[in-house]
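Next comes one such specimen:
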Amino acid sequence: MYKTPKLKLWLIVVLFSSATQLLSQDIHFSQFANTPLNLNPALTGAFDGEYRFNSSFRRQWNPTVNYRNFTLSGEKNFCTVKCDSSNCWRPEGFALGAVFNYDIAGDSRLSLTQLQIAGSYNAYLGSGFSWAGALMLGGAQRAFSRDELFLENVNDPANSKSTTGRQARSLFDISLGTNFHYQGCNRRNSIDFGIAAYHLNQPNTSFFDVADINLPIRYTISGLAAIQVFNKLDLLINGLVQFQGPYQEVVLMGGARILPFTTGPGSFMLDINVGGRGDDAIIGMIQVHYNMWNLGFSYDITTARSRDLLGIDGGFELSVGHIVNRPNPARVCKVQF
């Protein structure tokens, strides 16, 4: 039976409105500790140095759809230099950061392009503990293309190039975060525990005017810990719980950091981690640190459940980070972390 162009275009509207609702969840990375501003805005400036840069790329395979995610962030620390009662250097003050996110999936090239600016303040509480609060503001665009999509009746005028092309939706975003940090003085012990809320204004992400589809608030609870066990061995424990609308994600990672040579800030370190994302995937990760650089590689081994339900075959992730730590004569503390 012949379907009118109006009816077919209505079906396209329904299809992409549903796709938007399903796919308008935030991008995620298995190496979440290497994407600090996507994890919690309050992690802006949570490092010992003047500048920090991080970048991650993720690709996940499906027999019919490729998911590709990319993120790039940079931060500037304005923290003042002070010594606590234990003569350990502690940061206190403001920091600024920016993060760019991009992901794309499928023949429709459904994509997200996002740029956000974060500002944080870090206050030292004493005994190695500090607190940070942050505000993040930014804009984003969700878009898709119908160039590679075809309707059933090729003779239908709805298939003409005049009705194809790119559809886009721009939005404004507000996020908040808080983080508690502990840094040891004479040992390599550090702990971060944070809570954040992204998309507090719940912007409308619908491509069409037939209905409003608001982006749900994403709540994150994260913990990052490195505990010195021996002179050349640290225990690593990272955890993340996320809620966004009807979706939730739980990622737990554990492993060891090996320091085979020296224990200075520019030494070579090797991280070996293993973990899982709920009952969806097993994650293996290896990361190398050298001279304020870090390079990480991870691979998700998809469980049978995810292959059966989603058809996902697994995916890999690559991350690169660098901290610029310019010499500062004002740092007079005998012990520095």
